[in-house]
Amino acid sequence: MALAEEFRAIAGRVNNWGRWGAEDEIGTLNLVTDEVVRAAAAEVRTGRRVPLALPLRQDGVQTGLIPGRVNPLHTMVQLNQELFGPGSVACSDDVVVMGLQAGTHWDALTHVSHSGQLYNGRPAHTVTAHGGAEFSGIDKVRHLVSRGVLLDVARARGVDRLAGGHAVTPEDLRAAEEFAGTRVRAGDIVLVRTGQVQAYLAGDRHGYGYPSPGLSVRCPEWFHARDVAAVANDTLTFEVFPPEIEDLWLPVHALHLVEMGMLQGQNWNLEELSTACGETGRYTFLLSATPEPFVGATGTPVAPVAVL
User: Residue 121's domain is classified under what CATH number?
Assistant: First the structure.
């Protein structure tokens, strides 16, 4: 089977265009119903809160591999300035210039296109230089709270960190389910831990980005069969990089965002969560991960919190 034919075959099996109507702009987030959120709230047992975002800093995770995706450049524009005259309250203000996908972030459904199309069959040219995304921009995701499930693939395989270039397969995901003693269900947000973020946390920025473990092109069918609402992991590229199939670049991005209409997140710090889940023996939790509502943006920073 030729590479293009292989991709099209998978795309045909996971395609969600029209599933929630021709006007739909949020894809699999339609699966996060009120009932799903009520059930997710019941996952809270101790109230322990675990932050999942990396710090936003100038020496952040971006290394130049992705053009234009700059780490945060933080500047003070006011320093204890008495705005209303001497003796009045003094203010300090900041400005940040950064790539919206520079740190811990969500990719919007418009982040990638293929064959000239975006999710739900909309044309790729509806993303413009001045307006950004006309449809399915990240601002259309007004809230995102659901049950989170940590699939700790690394620990399930008996290692603390997967090797660079390891393609996480559906078999890996099933093994991580068994390791966690749970089962992924409709409306869940799945967090896949590879341990790769440890390289960045240890100061090895270049070792973090390339080569990278990540999801195999076979994984989208696994998520589709379980009606997963969104997926995030702890890597720079999300999917295995370099690609597992020669010259087939970012196929998981295209399958998730374009064909399925499923948000995906990158650069999530899952280390503390892995420890907490291991200590409690529970790998499910309430997850709050609402994106910053930049109008027309194709991605955005997020500061997710898992509540155990």
Answer: 3.50.30.50
- Provide the pairing of β-strand 167-168 with 284-288: unpaired
* Whole-number Å distance between alpha carbons of 191 and 177: 11
Residue 232, Cβ density class (10 Å: 0-12 exposed, 13-18 middle, ≥19 buried): buried
Q: Tens digit of pLDDT for each residue in 74-127?
A: 999 999 999 999 999 999 999 999 999 999 999 999 999 999 999 999 999 999
Q: Is residue 72 part of a domain?
A: no
Helix (H) / strand (E) containing 80: strand 73-82
Cβ atoms of 118 and 258 within 8 Å: the answer is yes
- The Cα–Cα gap between 158 and 155 comes to 5
User: Is residue 88 a part of any domain in this protein?
Assistant: no
Tell me which residue range forms the domain holding 110: 3-66+98-307
- Does residue 71 form part of some domain? no
